[in-house]
Amino acid sequence: MLLAVRKFLASKWAKVFVFLLSSVPLLLLVWRGFRGDLTANPVEFLQHQTGDWTLRFLIFTLCITPFRKLLNLPELIRFRRMLGLFAFFYVGLHFLTYLGPDQSFNVAGMLKDVAKRPFITVGFAAFVLLIPMAITSTAGWIRRLGGKRWQVLHRSIYICAILGVIHYYWLVKSDIRKPLFYGMLVGILLIWRLAAWFGRPKAPAVAHSVPVRPS
Amino acid sequence: MLIKQASALADITPKEVYFNRRNFLRGLGIAGAATVVGERFSSLLSPPTTAFAGTKLTTIKSNYRVDEKISSENDVTHYNNFYEFGSDKGDPAKNAQNFRTSPWVVSVEGEVKTPRKFSMDEILTLAPLEERIYRHRCVERWSIVVPWIGYSLGTVLKLVEPTPKAKYVAFESFYDPKQMPQAKYTGLAYPYVEGLRLDEAMHPLALLCVGMYGETLPNQDGAPVRMVIPWKYGYKSIKSIVKIRLQSSEPPTSWNRQAPNEYGFYSNVNPNVDHPRWSQATERRLGEIFMHKTLMFNGYSDQVASLYSGMDLKKFH
């Protein structure tokens, strides 16, 4: 059984499968759009949906390393980049629903809004922070930056996830269950990393060849 | 169960037939054999003697009507902030279906000479029902244009004769945790309460509302009786009212209690005073994509600005 799972995870079909699965939220929105079924306030609905999916994909991405270790499934690493890029894809849509319908594509007005509204400031910061990660997600960029520096850059996903949760928490009026739920998941995933980092095997003083700590 | 079937029927059945069926169902329950005869006969009883959602109301024309495109009825009945039934906009339409709005009594009390409990039948017949087309602006920056049905709250207030001590009007919504199990998750304290200064409450625009789109109020829109105060943010227009109390001190209001820096007692629509988290300069009409400018007092400055002359509207937001 485990062998079959690992074999599938290592196959090229697994990537196709994860890609298709990750596209389902988009396809559903498009389908609902064609049916005129985007609620009485389609703009807000799309904003909320794309925002939700951004947070979910950030969380999926952050799940890869703990699951890899805890389930002893090293093959999971193959999907991390794709999931991260889907998070970026959905946040891009999320941003467009704000820049377009909310701000009428007026960039100057948008920047003023970003500076003035704390909940938009943090959301926008998270979006901007994701851009260099998306750009440098290729093998070529890992080589150019060097593994160590690349990894440091890509740890900013921790900050993005935290900012994303704050962005959501500050948006809602009084029913804070959903932002708290996302916050809890992000919290668990980050605390696991802290624990793993403190519990890592001590490096022998001479060598730099110890395995890099979980990211 | 029967009621549910009837509303499912509404989707596919011509309105006349569907109303006959509704009346038939109602006849089984309370009104007796008379209404079984159907729509033609029950219209003679107009305004109806029971306040079920979806009962046709006879109205007179009112001068209070904005000349703007009326929002789709489906939007207005499926996109609601009625936190007792859940905080998602789609929740009330789903969760309020079996909300019991009959029998219903509204108690008008406090600093009045003749405190009185009004039955819904009395409320429906105290004054001619007017159809008024108002703009309605939510603090969340969406807006609608709705043909409400009702009459000025002042009609009722005059009837109970406020004493000289009466300076404010406190409103209270119905609350039943059994019928509204979602309420406890929404972060607000219940019952929902709202308030107005007496002169605001006496303003002819302040509507005691019993219907919309030609019919009694749907449950999710605040059946059987609510307020509509068109120059204030939507949450001031309290739904499903059971108590109206006149008093000398400013009453607490639900959203103000929840976040005093964000929601003031007055909550007049004001494009120049931003919500701490977002601009109030623009709004989105349901059914539209782009935002347009929000008007001072939601476009009712000529009628209501004098209520606030000399007041710092930033301080008293």
Termini distance of chain B?
45 Å
In quaternary terms, these chains amount to heterodimer
The top-level CATH class of the largest domain in chain B is Alpha Beta
| Largest interchain contact | A-B, 21 and 27 residues
Task: Identify the overall geometry of chain A.
Answer: globular
Quickly count the domains of chain A: 1
Let me know the CATH homologous superfamily of the largest domain in chain B: Oxidoreductase, molybdopterin-binding domain
Helix content of chain A: over 70%
Query: Per DSSP, what share of the residues of chain B sits in E-state strands of 2 or more residues?
Result: 15-25%
Number of strands of chain A: 0
Number of domains of chain B: 2
Ranges of chain A where pLDDT stays below 50 over 5 or more residues in a row are: none
What general form of chain B does the structure show? globular
